[in-house]
Amino acid sequence: GDSVTQMEGPVTLSEEAFLTINCTYTATGYPSLFWYVQYPGEGLQLLLKATKADDKGSNKGFEATYRKETTSFHLEKGSVQVSDSAVYFCALYLQGGSEKLVFGKGTKLTVNP
Amino acid sequence: DTAVSQTPKYLVTQMGNDKSIKCEQNLGHDTMYWYKQDSKKFLKIMFSYNNKELIINETVPNRFSPKSPDKAHLNLHINSLELGDSAVYFCASRDWTSTDTQYFGPGTRLTVL
Q1: Which of A8, A103, B6, B92 is a Cys-bridge partner for B105, taking CB atoms 3.0 to 4.6 Å apart?
Q2: Mean pLDDT throughout B81-102?
Q3: How much is the average pLDDT of A13-18?
Q4: Most A-contacting residue of B23, B93, B100 (CB-CB within 10 A), to test interface
Q5: Which of A90, A92, A99 should be substituted to probe chain B, the one whose Cβ sees the most B Cβ atoms within 10 Å?
Q6: How far apart are CA B92 and CA B107, in angstroms?
């Protein structure tokens, strides 16, 4: 079945460090790919998305590129801030498939000043 | 002007009780979801309704019964609560025809004692 694998956390970085959170997927078709973020005590918010191969999603300094050849959608940010501390979820959605969002297990990021 | 709202935010109850969680969205969406997030932050879909019709029903115990009185509401009723039901429950909504992006509520933290 469809699945998402993302790097285990927690990840702890210093402010202004470079961030990468790896995400790979398995799907029978061509899914849309998402990164959602969950700040402490809150619900999930869409961070960015990409709907087809080679698309790049970007928002708030975060970027991820849909790589069909490696079935990956790694999240990157050049310089993290303390306010980026949150749990990040990679997810896929396959229209005409299971019709549901499939999430990775989440990666907790802590950024220290 | 909250887009997706849930009540209550916190729910503490005894084993064996019956409880309900309510969800409302004012986005005009036609599809709504319930997710369960366990203590390790893993998110799993439970149910999905499109135009008040059930379209996704994962392998959830039948103690859980969703009810959609109209397109803007999807409530979750849980009978005979068990310790393992303790989790954070998230409601989400989406416009089925125009986007695959889901919008999440703030969550309801259920604690069963």
Answers
A1: B6
A2: 89
A3: 97
A4: B100
A5: A99
A6: 10
